[in-house]
Every structure is written in C-alpha cells, then in structure tokens.
Amino acid sequence: MAATPWQPLLDWWFGSALDAVEVSAQRSALWFGKSACQDVDSENRFGGLVRQALDGGLQDWVDEPQGWLALILLLDQLPRMIFRDSPRAFAGDARAQRLVRQGLEAGFDRKLPRVERVFVYIVLEHAEDLASQDQAVRLYEALQAESSDSEKVLFAGYLAYARKHQAVIARFGRFPHRNAILGRPSTAEETQFLTEPGSRF
Description:
By secondary structure, the protein is an all-alpha fold. It is built from eleven helices and no strands.
C-alpha cells in the first residue's frame, strides 16, 4: 500500500512513540522551541507543501482525519517556523480555522489520538477571537478529562496554556506580541503588558 502524501509530515511532527507522554517528551522542543536549525529544517522538508497550502491547495487532504490534521499543521504550525517573526507566519490562520471548524463538525478530531488533537485545538487558541478561545478551552478541558492517569499532568499543561491565551484575548481582543510583526500600533496598556513575564507566546 502506497504511503499517503501527508505521512512524512506526521512522522516528523509526532515521531514514532505511541504513548502521549513519550511523544511530547520527544517532540516538544520541535513543537514549542525556537531554533533556527529547526526552522531551516522545516523549510527544507516541507516548505513547498506549506506554500501550496497557503495558496489554497491540497484540498483533497481534508477527506480523511490524518490528511486534515496534516493540512492544519501546514497552515498553522509550519508557517510560524518557516516565516518566523514576519506577517506571513500568520497567513494560514484563517484557512486553518475554517478547516478546524469543518472537521470538528464532521467529528474528525475524535478519530485522532489525544496528543494529535492538541494541534487541532491549538488553531483556535491562536485565533484573535474570544469565541474561538472559549471553544479551545472547552475542547482542552474535555481532552484533559478523557486523558489517562499517566497523561493528566501533560494535558493539564495544555489546558493551562489555552486559558492563558483566552485571558489575553479577553483583555485585549488580540495578542499584543504580534503588533510589531503585523505593523499594528500598541496601546499604552499593551506596551506595559509586554514587559511582564509570560506575555509572549
């Protein structure tokens, strides 16, 4: 059976471990670290696919949950690496959010392992929209409630970050740390906020 076109991306992103805690331990530096080497590696491996996705391509990937997830990664996660600190880092967000909502309605997320669902729900966590933030928190709450005893701490951490994002959007209606990148003027309150620990994601 021929490999699906999205499998190399999923293998790279999630690794080979089966347990969610092990997957996170092995891949969290890739997921949440900031490394020029990793950014270049993501460009070399998947830059062409990212550009296809940003241009509206690869729509046939959304017909099954794994392809849907992979396209979401191409739109939401990889641009933040390949185009770090530039407006294009966020260029796939709108399409990713639409795909997430469509897939949630179809129940695609329920067909994925819990650790993979994190990267579906994080798209809503990235939205500068309080309704999306509220939905993300609800989904992470459900994910944490479903987790096994060995996973509780891991998924509680993801939920805590979702609540932090929610609080910023509830306060400002946007993420102040994006202002400079997107050429948006910051308010005095936002400027003060950005001096505080943990104000940047």
